[in-house]
Amino acid sequence: MYTAVLVVVIAVLFWIFKNANHWLYETALLGSKRFALPPGDLGWPFIGNMWSFLRAFKSPYPDSFMDSIISRYGNTGVYKAFMFGSASVIVTSPETCKRVLNDDEAFGPGWPLSTLKLIGENSFVGISYQEHKRLRRITAAPVNGYEALSTYLTYIEKIVVSSLEKWAYMGEIEFLTELRQLTFKVIMYIFLSSESEAITEALEREYTMLNLGVRAMAINIPGFAYHKALKARKNLEATFGSIVRERRMERERKENSEGKRRDMMDALLEAEDEDGRRLSDEEIIDVLLMYLNAGHESSGHTMMWAAIFLHQHPQFLQKAKAEQEEIVRKRPLGQKGLTLKEVRSQMPYLTKVIDETLRVVTFSLTVFREAKHDVKISGYTIPKGWKVLVWFRSVHFDPETYPNPKEFNPSRWDDFTPKAGSFLPFGAGSRLCPGNDLAKLEVAIFLHHFLLNYKLERVNPESPVRYLPHTRPKDNCLARIKRVA
């Protein structure tokens, strides 16, 4: 009898505990509006659906997370969940993703507070729509403008060529680690004109620690990734704070020497809005932290995966290589390096290789928005204040848009233009990644020289893949870079 009573009590407590989030976030706060919510569940108190998310993304089958939701609730493209500490709606279809990313009246930035503490509340990911427009105006031309990209191309090509030559003599290297250092040097040059090896390497280590904490559980206890990331953030703030103050002092002393190359720091210090308001030190530091973090991670990973995929598919490698050889053959006498025109108009197949790599890898699995008011979407209501997760992986692996979606096949892009919302490697709408053109330029320059003169020999071609914080081989692609005739 006592055993039976105990079983009943445990069952009741389990039921109450399991439905706590439902009562708290739906019944208590929404009333009858809860009946218009998308299908799904809010999981356990505090934890929500995070355990199943982390379990899937720490396994060889990351898409099992969304697959299990779809198998339970149908292919609606909109699901309620409790993610990263908030009641949320996950959108997975091209139509819903396009709506959320483009409707600035209904959806604002919704990144978790833990993420904002790392990336910065004054950076692109945390500021209002109007402030975002203002910062994009300030930074667009110095990062993605034609003149700027033409200038950066020469430096990027120089560092790519020298890095490949160095790696060919180093024996076994962690290919991803070396690529991340390469792209970090590029972004440092653009933003701070800094080419100091020691400073660059020290900052890159801090950024690695910061990035590991962005997708980690927000546990601020020594030993956990988030705690280490917060410490890295403080170190980076101190470093960039001293640089900003020194630059301001130089400007006050009018030490603006002629011939000195202007960089993004100069642009941020000079920028002002129509009311004459300039950026504060804190705003400049947050913009730098965001740009420098985003500006090298995606490029380095994309370079590595493109090289891996081409190595795995010799037929695609030969086609891409032949295209680059043709560019060299057609060059006028006396031209020593790439031009922006060659990258943009003479590499159609390599562009397909890059797009297919971006699709298959899906560097950012999601972005966060927040409903500014109750929003109707696909027949469901997203309540005001709920987070909205735009789930890029589901969009990029939709078999209706991309047959055999897990297969790397650049030829799928032949005479194919994806419909709006079905290809989102850099997001979409007003908050499209501001450095997307620069990132693709870096990748194209690297692959041009890599395909012409080198090949990849992986030490552990069957190395397991990790999916958090970004998709990468567990051994960081331990390999040898071999020069070819």
UniProtKB/TrEMBL annotation:
Record keywords, A-Z: Heme, Iron, Membrane, Metal-binding, Monooxygenase, Oxidoreductase, Transmembrane, Transmembrane helix
Record's keyword annotation contains Protein biosynthesis: no
Compartment list: Membrane
Main location class: membrane
Membrane topology: Single-pass membrane protein
The UniProt record lists the keyword Transmembrane: yes
UniProt cross-references to InterPro entries, sorted A to Z: Cyt_P450, Cyt_P450_CS, Cyt_P450_E_grp-I, Cyt_P450_sf
Residues in the signal sequence: none
Entry's family note: Belongs to the cytochrome P450 family.
Protein's UniProt name: Ent-kaurenoic acid oxidase 1-like
Organism: Cucumis melo
Gene (name only): LOC103498993
